[in-house]
Design goal:
about 210 residues, 10 helices, HATC_C_dom
Length: about 210
């Protein structure tokens, strides 16, 4: 069991390190806008790095990514007496600084209002609506549920891996056979109609904050 836990940690660490390559640091921004985490999450000893300043990098990424949302809502949400820079600073500080570190005179409802009605709300809807994994990856891991049954507890890790890969490749082969059959027996118009129907179901949507 201990060896399995170490192997799982090693594998997860490998995948987690790939989040550094996500464009615009979206994974880190999603962590920052979580009220229980904020930017302080990247200030702990686990993030001490003599080479990279993760805290500064992620704050800069958040500032850069939040700016278009602030300008888009500027005309509708700001009084004429408030400057854009003042709104940007106050909003950014609110989501970066832990609530316990803020002044005691701050209205406790201010932070809730900020998350519900601001540029941050639009940013959060877009960032948090991004799926963490693709459907293909989920299907691969879900196939392990069918393999790792309690009646098959004696299977070796290699056997489990081979069975999972066999199940995935078998399903892929079935899809290829189905595609070949469609191309052989259906007319060009019927094939196009089938593709259009599938494309309609799998159509992409605009960001929900728009």
């Amino acid at each position: 069991m201990l060896a399995a836990l170490y192997a799982a940690k090693k594998k997860l660490s490998h995948y987690y390190s790939m989040t550094d390559d996500i464009p615009d640091d979206l994974y880190a921004i999603g962590t920052i806008i979580a009220p229980q985490q904020k930017l302080q999450f990247f200030s702990g000893k686990d993030w001490d790095d003599p080479v990279a300043d993760w805290h500064g990098r992620y704050r800069a990424s958040l500032e850069r990514y939040l700016e278009p949302y602030q300008w888009r809502l500027l005309d509708t949400q700001l009084p004429t007496s408030v400057q854009p820079s003042a709104m940007a600073i106050s909003e950014l500080e609110m989501i970066c600084v832990p609530q316990s570190s803020q002044q005691s005179t701050t209205n406790p409802d201010d932070e809730l209002s900020l998350y519900l009605d601001s540029a941050l709300a639009s940013l959060a809807r877009d960032i948090l609506s991004i799926p963490a994994t693709g459907a293909g990856v989920e299907r691969l891991f879900n196939s392990a549920r069918d393999v790792c049954h309690y009646r098959r507890g004696s299977l070796s890790p290699g056997t489990i891996r081979d069975l999972m890969l066999f199940m995935c490749t078998s399903r892929f082969d079935l899809k290829e056979e189905q595609r070949a059959m469609i191309n052989e027996y259906l007319s060009y118009e019927e094939v196009q109609a089938d593709r259009e129907e599938k494309d309609t179901k799998a159509s992409e949507f605009d960001p929900i904050s728009d």
